[in-house]
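Q: What structure does this chain adopt?
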Amino acid sequence: MSHLPSDQAVNLLGMMLRMRRLEEQVIHFAEDHEGLIRGHFHVYIGQEAAGAAACAALRRDDYVYTTHRNHAHVVAKGGDMGRTLAEIIGRANGYCKGRAGTFHVAAPDLGILHTSAIVGGCLPLAAGTAYASKIQGNGRATVVFFGDGAMEEGVFYETMNISQLWGLPVIFYMENNAVQPGERAGRGSPTSEHSAKALSDVPRAFSMDTHVVDGTDLEAVYDLASGLVEKTRRGEGPFFIESRTSRWPGNYGNFPNSVGGDTDINWVWSPASAPEAVRKWEELSDPVMLYARKLLDRKAINRESLIELDERVRREVEEAAKFALDGPLPPAEAAVEYAYA
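A:
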């Protein structure tokens, strides 16, 4: 695995910081405001390297499908943070005019045609655009993100089977966020909900080209995703990736909560200063911290520049949050617009 050029590496670190700060802002929307987010929500904290690297390997016109943890994928594909946050809180200046909310942010102009919070819901849709790309010969890649829980659904098996039979140009990107730190680079592991000895054995049963990657290692993910995307453009595929990450402590409750507070960039060089609730995770499993330390060690960035980068990202997210909060709610009389029967 080769190191990324310094400018590209720093840009991707900045993207991960945008993803992190945006999701922290979503938690602030929920915790600091009354009734601003109506209903459940999920965040992508701890999986930023996986989404940022995979999306960096794509063109703007490539397709991305995602799940209930969709906010950061939209940003990683080039989405506007203000419009994303506005959609999350149901404002008319959001990507879907306030009708999608936190679970279903979509941005068709970025190739994100649909987002589904239904477990496994986006899998057959992704196969559909891959089939269209194959018929049209347009060289577009389709990447569909989903969690390990989707592998318990019947639609997963149907989609895997038809994609392999038809040789569709699609990358199935399974994000397994329940892996212990020392096991992330392993072959794969079983879960209590699946009888397979390893989750990666399941796609192999369909004779699908299957890869396991440490999802906290941005450069490993980028190398793998870039190679597979180019293969899909040549008419090869499908492919399966198991991206292995260790769950952020704030994601263990019924709702995400800001255990340990917002990420402090000083934890990069002083992990012992992190609150006890997140200290071990920040040191061993946080993809943002891990990559920042790598870039400091390589002298691709220095401490002052890293602090400046984080401050710049914080200002961007503050402006995006203001844009969202200042946005109007959709008028009641427009409730049935964009509805079809």
